[in-house]
Amino acid sequence: GRWGTSFACLLAAAHHMSVLSPARLTTLTSSSTSAIRSVRSAVRRSFATKVSTKPATAVRAIMADHDQASLAENPLASWKMGRVGGSGPDLPKWSSITAEHIRPAITAAVDAAVAELDAIEETLAGSAPTTWAELMDPIERLSEQLSRPWGVVSHLKGVRDSEALREAYDEMQPKVVGASLRIGQSRPVYDALVALKANPDSWASLTAAQQRAVECEVRDAELGGVALDGAAKTRYNEIATQLSALSTEFSNNVLDATKAFSHLATDKAEVAGLPHSALEQAAQTAADKGKQAGATADAGPWMFTLDAPSYMAVRMHAKDRTLREKVYRAYLSRASEFSQTSTAAEGKGDNAPLIETILALRREKALLLGYASFAEVSMAKKMATLERAEELLEDIRARARPAAVRELDEIRAFAKDAGAPEADTGLMQWDIGFWSERLREAKYELKEEDLRPYFQLPAVIDGMFALAGKLFDIKVVPADGDVEVWHKDVRFFKVLGADGKPRAYFYLDPYTRPAEKRGGAWMDDVVGRSTAMAAPGESVRLPTAHMVCNGTPPVGDKPSLMTHNEVTTLFHEFGHALQHMLTRESCGPVAGINQVDWDAVELPSQFMENWCYDKKVLRSIGKHYETGEELPDHLFEKLVASKNFGSGTRYLRQCHFALTDLELHARYTPGAEEGGGIFAVEEKIAAKTMIMPAIKEDRFLCGFGHIFAGGYSAGYYSYLWAEVLSADAFGAFEEAGLDDEAAVTATGAKFANTVLALGGGTAPLEVFKEFRGREPDVQALLRHNGLVPAAA
Q1: Annotated catalytic sites, by residue?
Q2: What is the DSSP secondary structure assignment for residue 756, as one 8-state letter?
Q3: Hey, how many other C-beta atoms are within 10 angstroms of the C-beta on 500?
């Protein structure tokens, strides 16, 4: 959840968002994600005022209308959002919260927020605040009364979905959006912020981080429609409400389509080629979901789903071409007119019409705000411009395409040499993953399953924490049992500083649960670092994050045995969490990931991925689950050698996603007769970004939650933009010498004191320059991925 204090974030939270992992080739799940500090955004702004008894009186009057005894017993309504002192953190009572708690808690929070705003606006009519303490601290404290409970609800919807919870969420969402709009468009509050900027003495009294916080609030208020009046404001608010509901519906459709598909195999010939670990998981799924008591890996039956571990195992390893085709077609057609589900047959669950409506509403919203396109609105809060983003994508596309052509030719030739019948008729999309993996195995003498026994989750976690300790001078220790969690598999940890005192806390939800949990991986905040939200007698509230993955779960007595890609995803999300947790900025609106430009937010996450190919780190995380043996040198060397296998294809595909996103939001006119619709736009982009033509049922856009139900609309390019930053940042460690422990530690301290510590209180480009001593350079990205010679 990388949402700052802006009004846009407020509305985003109303339909559940957070920082996501990219739609990798190996994990094409497009989960939108989780929750957050959204509401806090505009709400924060709106509570700006001098300290007054009127707001408190107004809230007491409103709350008197609610059943206080019931609210006190409601675990959602009674949470104090970290403002309770004690020996441990004050965090949500996740396992105690049920769907029945949502309506009364959120209704009370909405009513209190609106009443407080009314009183604040009355106070502002008399005098304007001139200091940070008068203006911004009350905003932060009071805004969280609405944003934090709603963030809990949004998170639970992502990880513990149910019909009852979904019904309560859908009922409350319009109320949250309505309150958010009322708050975010408060003209008296906006005028107070502008007046603070215009007062030389007041402005000079603020720290640089506080000044950036105010500037971001003013910008986000303007993007949130604060200057609109009359019919324009009414229409803007209608659009905002519709977009929140549509995003939720989009995400629900993807989750429902994913859950609806399953294939039960009973013939052992049908599962030939699948590794034993995949067969174990498929047998367990057959027993749990398919009610096939006694299913075993050796005898079956085996059930396959569209959940990432199951889907990828079939695509990469199943010799049965019919099975590969069935699973591939089902995945690419999720939530579309081609979905093989009962809802699709009834004409429900098709996201294509929703996409058209979403794009039309976003375009109308942009025009109301005075922008030519929604892409321009998106870029107003990012490092890049539309022109610079497309220039970067074209540069990478032009370098990646020739490599991708060579890679496909090599796969085709390999399949033909292997005597594959499909090589004579022409490989199809469901063949490429299988034969690509066979080529990689032959070329590097490395099978994914050779690595899996060495990547047991407990050892990977220990090694990842050890790396963070060396680089950033922290210690991560288990704290399971100290707080409530939302599922028995969820872990809880605390982060200690060099002085042994807590600096932060975080949850880890590692395994897939397709019946109730969104696909993909994401990180979000539970609470952020803040002086204004400190408990009585304490100087600062410490941050807490949650990391959510969909990795391979344990089977029987075996621990979770991970693919290297799953290891990389875990490191990615930990990088996000580190930026949230290790911030030294205590100004809440810009602490941690708050107000970090969206196209820079992936820097620490993608930076951490680089360590998954470092020999010392792999030795640390790679411990055989049965013998404890470290990852052998020959496997390490093969893994590193294969790192850039298929890099041209990977980057070309990322360019395809990003360019399609920008085209839809910058130049596409929804509903126009010419152009042929969204899929024609994607097909036109594909002429430059895909080597093989898509199949007729390819409806990837219908599952592309990143841009239609997440925070990446007109922003998917951010993954590649930030990867330029992260590769260049890792280059600093390479230049210092990865084998020089002292140099690595010193460079890690510099990274911690800049990229991780400064949060959104400093513009991302300035943060990067403070760490690297110059502006970013794309060459490290190209070099790391074999798209230019290593010496370049």
Answers
A1: 573
A2: I
A3: 7
